[in-house]
Design goal:
The chain is mainly alpha-helical. It has helices spanning 5-25, 31-51, 61-81, 88-107, 122-141, 145-149, 169-189. It has one domain (5-147, 166-189). The longest helix has 21 residues, at 5-25.
């Protein structure tokens, strides 16, 4: 991607940290959690690789085609997994967005995309709208239930099994939120 180097490196760090956390979540005892975490780890590390500032390391043309192939395959896998419902439809959209960005970068001369006078392309605009809505909804889901309902009910320590830090739903939601924000940042620079 192109743009200033400092925000680019922050985006790389955010995506790599998210990918690393998702790798740790793959140690969960819940099979569906492991599968979802694996797809999210791929997205996190792929986003980190694609966000490296072009001024530092401009990837060769074939690398963009490789990204497109990897994320195209990830989109097909997520589409297959979406037959059972759940969060997989978002993974389909995310993987398709990554493949789209890779194709745009491969098609542009020197790996830089220029819109010219035509404004934002339709696909980019639709993806921006989707990820903006996703980030807003994900942010609301992170609000504690007690804060949303106004209740102050406390749980008795030891009354329920506390999930491991890799199985905590709020951490996986925060992970998805950070990747949604990163996706927005990458789409804006496209």
């Amino acid at each position: 991607m192109h743009g200033p180097a400092s925000p680019g490196w922050l985006l790389v760090a955010l995506c790599a940290a998210t990918g690393a956390y998702c790798l740790l979540r793959m140690r969960s005892t819940v099979e569906e959690q492991r599968r979802t975490a694996g797809g999210e780890a791929l997205m996190g590390f792929g986003m980190a690789a694609m966000a490296v500032p072009a001024a530092v390391a401009a990837p060769p043309h074939w690398a963009w085609l490789g990204y497109a192939a990897v994320f195209g395959a990830a989109a097909l896998r997520a589409l297959w997994a979406a037959r059972g419902g759940g969060h997989h439809l978002h993974h389909v959209v995310g993987a398709c967005a990554m493949a789209y960005m890779a194709v745009v970068m491969a098609a542009s001369p020197g790996g830089h995309h220029a819109h010219g006078g035509s404004g934002v392309p339709l696909v980019t605009g639709a993806l921006l709208l989707y990820f903006t809505a996703y980030v807003l909804v994900s942010g609301v889901r992170l609000l504690p239930v007690a804060a949303m309902t106004g209740s102050t009910g406390a749980t008795v320590p030891g009354s329920a099994r506390t999930p491991g830090w890799g199985d905590r739903p709020e951490l996986s939601r925060a992970c998805r939120l950070s990747m949604g924000i990163a996706m927005l940042a990458m789409l804006v620079t496209l």
